[in-house]
Each structure stands twice: as structure tokens, then as C-alpha cells.
Amino acid sequence: MTKKVMFPVIKAIALLLIINVAASFFYARFDLTEDKRYTLSDAALNAVSAFENPVIIDVLLDGDELPAEFAKLRQETRLLLQEFATENNNLKFGFA
User: In the chain, at which residue ranges do the beta strands (DSSP E only) sit?
Assistant: First the structure.
């Protein structure tokens, strides 16, 4: 490759690395549904933020041969619990 081609490639890679490092420090999830289906309510956020001691949640939805409906439920449950865990570090969860 020539120097004229290499420089834009190197700049693009450097920009992607900077964006990736910056994104690792910030978490954001956007709910673009009309009914705000994936937005946590104020009551739920208040309840989770009130946890002063560790709260451990064991979800019994693990396995390789789950029906498709349960696999989707497992994924949605994981996302919801991750949202709650970002609000309060005392919330711990695992799948078994």
C-alpha cells in the first residue's frame, strides 16, 4: 500500500479504538418503542436504589436445549437484570 492509502486507514483504526475505549466507560440504552416498553419506571428505579445490602437473584432459565420462547425470556430477563444492576451495585444475579 502507498502512504496515501495507509494514512486514512490508520486514522480510521485509531478513531475506532478511541470510540471503543470511550464506550467502555459509558453505558447507555435507548428505548425507541412507542410505549416505552424497555424503560424502567421511576418506582422500579426507586425500589432498586434502596438496596443497601447485597441482593442475589438466581434465575433458573439456563440450558442449551431450551425452547425458543424460554431462550427469548432468558435473554430479556438478563437485559432487565443488567439494567437494574447498573442502577445499584448491590444487585447480583446469575443463571443456573
Answer: 55-59, 91-95
